[in-house]
From TrEMBL:
GO terms for molecular function: (3R)-hydroxyacyl-[acyl-carrier-protein] dehydratase activity. It comes from Neurospora hispaniola. One of its GO terms (cellular component) is mitochondrion. InterPro entries: HotDog_dom_sf, Mitochondrial_HTD2. Residues 1-33 are annotated as: Disordered. Signal peptide: none annotated. This is Mesaconyl-C4 CoA hydratase. Coiled coil: none annotated. Gene3D superfamilies: Hotdog Thioesterase. SUPFAM superfamilies: Thioesterase/thiol ester dehydrase-isomerase (SSF54637).
Length: 356
């Protein structure tokens, strides 16, 4: 929270820093521990910032809305099946995730398809998006057609233990997005890096997951619908994503992580029953749910903190619900549940007014 608030308190653009982020050197994978990997990563990236520029094009925003099934997601007068949003259209909260995508050649990707810009050194190369927080600066929202700068730096790298006792590295990265009106957004992301899988040890006899496959969605299509549960005044939002929708989201974010589209890899190597729904996709769904259900005239989205706790797979039905945690201030808890299992949690805070 301190990082986010201090960054958003600055109103002037910092000088452009073009220093490239070098990759961590590899140590012997047989001897390196999670603690050593974290220390090496901190040493490699200490005081380094990477700055990228991009013009926010309307095509990318249009395709995201269509992937989400939000034909009128940018306003009731704009049918996105007919064309792209015009210059000056505000980028909704979270939709910046389809910009500033990875810029690596295929030969530089990890064995599982992930980009390695901020990877921990081997053998801790299996990345999972664990959570994070975003904070918006009112009055400086990003808009279609403007040139934006992304400033990225490593905040921390810490050795951790998983529930089964295995080692992993928790990495936190901070991203600032500077638009024509100043600092628009601070996006802090937490990733977990687990040990790589020995592909040579996977035999043809173990070519499928031990878990039964997930049945495809009805009709093969994704489903998003609002339902009223019991006496609740606010609807739950029910989702079911098809493999095609997940593929489209992977393409938009230039994310080649194979757990999201390659079922053979997902089942045989990662031991999942099906392709995995993206954590960032559900983060966007959370923010859209707030916009649709809770936002009132004059309310402003200030911050979201979120944490992913369990995977969701293509074809699985799951629900998003919310409750107001504070009656005096706009603070909401959003839960993503698959049956009784909580798969993701989010806490959303409002400020004063927003331009959507």
């Amino acid at each position: 929270m301190t990082v986010l608030r201090s960054a958003l308190g600055r109103q002037t653009r910092p000088p452009l820093n073009l220093r490239a982020m070098s990759r961590p050197r590899s140590l012997s994978t047989s001897s390196i521990t999670a603690s050593e990997a974290a220390s090496q990563m901190l040493h490699t990236f200490q005081d380094k910032t990477i700055v990228r520029k991009q013009t926010l094009d309307g095509n990318q925003l249009q395709k995201l809305c269509l992937t989400l099934g939000r034909r009128y997601g940018l306003g009731p007068q704009l049918d996105l099946t007919l064309g792209c949003p015009p210059a000056g259209t505000p980028v909704p909260p979270g939709y910046h995730l389809v910009y500033f995508t990875p810029s690596e050649l295929e030969e530089d990707l990890g064995a599982d398809g992930t980009d390695r810009t901020f990877n921990a050194p081997a053998p801790f190369t299996r990345r999972m998006w664990a959570g994070g927080q975003m904070r918006w600066n009112d009055g400086t929202e990003l808009r279609v057609g403007e040139q934006v700068e992304e400033h990225t730096k490593l905040l921390s790298a810490v050795a951790k233990k998983s529930r089964d006792g295995s080692e992993m590295v928790l990495v936190e990265v901070n991203k600032e997005f500077w638009g024509e009106r100043g600092l628009a957004l601070v996006d802090q992301r937490s990733w977990i890096f687990r040990k790589e899988i020995d592909l040579s040890a996977i035999s043809s006899s173990s070519s499928t997951s031990s878990m039964p496959p997930i049945p495809p969605p009805r009709g093969g299509k994704s489903e998003v619908r609002d339902v009223i549960m019991g006496d609740n005044a606010l609807p739950d939002r029910v989702f079911k994503w098809s493999p095609a929708a997940l593929f489209r989201f992977s393409a938009l974010t230039f994310n080649a992580h194979m757990i999201h589209y390659n079922e053979s890899w997902t089942r045989a190597v990662e031991n999942h029953p099906g392709v995995v729904v993206h954590g960032p996709l559900n983060l966007i769904n959370m923010l859209d749910y707030w916009r649709d259900v809770h936002r009132v005239e004059g309310s402003v989205l200030e911050e979201i903190s979120y944490r992913a706790t369990a995977p969701i797979y293509a074809g699985e039905e799951y629900a998003m619900s919310s409750s107001k945690m504070n009656t005096d201030y706009g603070i909401f808890e959003v839960l993503v549940k698959k049956g009784d299992q909580v798969c993701m949690t989010g806490h959303i805070s409002e400020a004063s007014s927003w331009s959507y």
